[in-house]
Amino acid sequence: MGARTGPAAAAAGGDGDGRPGRRALLVGAAAAAVGTAVLAREELSRLWWRLPGVDKPRVAGAVDFRGARWVAASAANYRRADRPADYRVDRVVVHVTQGGYASAVKVFQDPAHGAAAHYIVRADGRVTQLIRELDVAFHAGNREYNERSVGIEHEGFVDDASSFTDALYAASARLTATVCGRYGIPVDREHIIGHAEVPGTDHTDPGRFWDWDRYLGLVRAERARRAPNERS
Ligand SMILES: [Zn+2]
Questions:
Q1: Which residue range or ranges hold the N-acetylmuramoyl-L-alanine amidase domain (predicted)?
Q2: Ligand 1 midpoint to CA 173 (Å)
Q3: Domain check: are 116 and 204 in the same one?
Q4: 121: which DSSP letter?
Q5: How far is the centre of ligand 1, averaged over its atoms, from the C-alpha of 59 (Å)?
Q6: pLDDT for 168-213, tens place per residue?
Q7: In angstroms, rounded to a whole number, what is the distance separating the alpha carbons of residues 27 and 79?
Q8: Do 24 and 77 sit in the same domain of this protein?
Q9: How far is ligand 1, taken at its centre, from the CA of residue 160, in Å?
């Protein structure tokens, strides 16, 4: 895995201005370990999930999904980790907030809440990331599933079909497609599951109005549309 060099890595010749970037200096050892002489800043941010067993680069405010807005969850609501080096990521867990976007963000910032997801998708399609995918978010109510999954909240209510807007489905499908691409997760109902399907949970989200056929169709279309090397 470490020796892989795709077209993207091969194209990375430097930072473009002749000087090594700050990030390149920080991860010089990691870059050498993967057998690539120099990784440009941008390339590195796209390839971090391929770096095994190292402390992956973390930059304040960085997101894993391009275009996501960053709002940090309380550190009490997740556990710092080094995924996928320490835990294999092979599930996406779909949640529904049972409330508005703002109140969901607020409770995820509350250390007393004890839970938070990696992402929230707003009804208008805006994506907010609260926890890095490197880390284990407390969202599934099951330790093993927390460790192996990325959790995505959706603004809305399980009993209100109108919660699930076209914009929400489309944005979430784009997000899930990139997560599946990053970790090689198959796009099927075994690997993309609802919170209600997590063993031991008493939660019912996303509920009967969540259109799984439509959602998986959108995720598959998004995966097909993307270039094989594009993972973010
Ligand atoms: Zn849930």
A1: 78-207
A2: 17
A3: yes
A4: E
A5: 28
A6: 999 999 999 999 999 999 999 999 999 999 999 999 999 999 999 9
A7: 23
A8: no
A9: 16
